[in-house]
Amino acid sequence: MTAALWLASCARPPAQPVEALAGGQSVAQFALTSLQGTRNGDRLDVRAVYGDGTGRIAVTLHFAVTPPTHLVSGTWEGLGGQGAVHERSSTFLGGQSGPPSLGGGFDLLASEGRPLYRVAIPVQPLKNPVLAANGHYNGYTNARSDAMTALKLTAIGTSSGVVIPKEMLSRLKVKKGDTLYAVETAEGYLLTPYDPAIDEQLQAGQQFMREYRDTFKALAK
Fold first, then answer.
1. pTM, whole model, 2 decimals?
2. Domain housing 181
3. What is the tally of structural domains in the chain?
């Protein structure tokens, strides 16, 4: 009982959706109100909007999802300010058999490069595509119906299974004997060749290297 209580007390609290850093306005009541995402090959475009009914912050992110996933560029605007975005961490899951999932933490920088706000995106499916400037959907929804493949359940011994077409195996870049991971999401199961646990470890390692890059540089001398 003592150990269980100690573990519960040491659990990390959930990340606040928006946190004001030095010089930022009060955002204590801000919540993530909108999240859109469009995958196009190895590129993922994301738009997240935070607000409290009176103010808002819109964040636009562009990722390269070839492992390891990383932020290529990002911008934000709102509360009378705007600037670039710095990636603290990010997690990307799948997208081959359904909407891709993304989560992470990001610093919103002032014009001079000083972190002004810190935002968090819980890992979740990007079910709504990013709207382009002309108001049309940006790729993913339109492409999804063309890329969708129906898989029929068949009897395999005393179990049931599906036969994956050769074209889908090629797109997944897997072959006989390889492992696929079924990741449960709000939409169902996401089929991916990438181990989510390994991806999280890579992201944590990248974050560690970024935070201590000056130390590693000094040690390398």
1. 0.56
2. 14-220
3. 1
